[in-house]
Write a structure and sequence with these properties.
six-stranded mixed beta sheet; mainly beta
C-alpha cells in the first residue's frame, strides 16, 4: 500500500517562505519512485483540491499552476523517495492544506480524481 506523508507546513507571515516535504513509501519494486511523476495539490474548505505543481520522473521537467509560477519550486530526490515544494513570497490566498501524490502517467491536466490514494496533507497558513 502506497503511503504519502507530507510535512513542513506551518504558520507564516505574508511574504515568507516554507519548504514542504513529501515522503513516499510502500511502492512495489517493479514500479519504484524514480518511475513515478510527482504532484502537489492544495485544498481550502469548501473548494475542490487544485493542482499546484508537477515534476516528471527525472526531475528535468516541471509544470506549475499560474498562481505558483515564479514563487513555488518543485523538486525531488529519487535516492530518498522524497519530493519537495519550496514556496516563497507566500500570500494569504495560499492558505490551504497541501498534498503530494504520485502517478505512473504524465497527466496533462492533473485532477484530484486521477489519484486514488491521498495522504493527510500539511496545513499552510499565511497571515496578512
Amino acid at each position: 500500500q502506497v503511503q504519502l506523508t507530507e510535512s513542513g507546513g506551518g504558520l507564516v507571515q505574508a511574504g515568507g517562505s516554507l519548504r514542504l516535504s513529501c515522503e513516499v513509501s510502500g511502492l512495489h519494486f517493479t514500479s519504484p519512485f524514480s518511475r513515478r511523476h510527482m504532484y502537489w495539490f492544495r485544498q481550502t474548505p469548501g473548494k475542490e483540491r487544485e493542482f499546484v505543481a508537477q515534476i516528471l520522473t527525472t526531475g528535468g521537467d516541471t509544470k506549475y499552476a499560474d498562481f505558483a509560477k515564479g514563487r513555488f519550486t518543485i523538486s525531488r530526490d529519487n535516492s530518498m523517495n522524497m519530493a519537495y515544494l519550496q514556496m516563497n513570497g507566500l500570500k494569504p490566498d495560499d492558505t490551504a492544506v497541501y498534498y503530494c501524490n504520485i502517478h505512473t502517467l504524465y497527466l496533462a491536466t492533473p485532477q484530484s480524481g486521477d489519484f486514488p490514494v491521498w495522504g493527510q496533507g500539511t496545513q499552510v497558513t499565511v497571515s496578512s
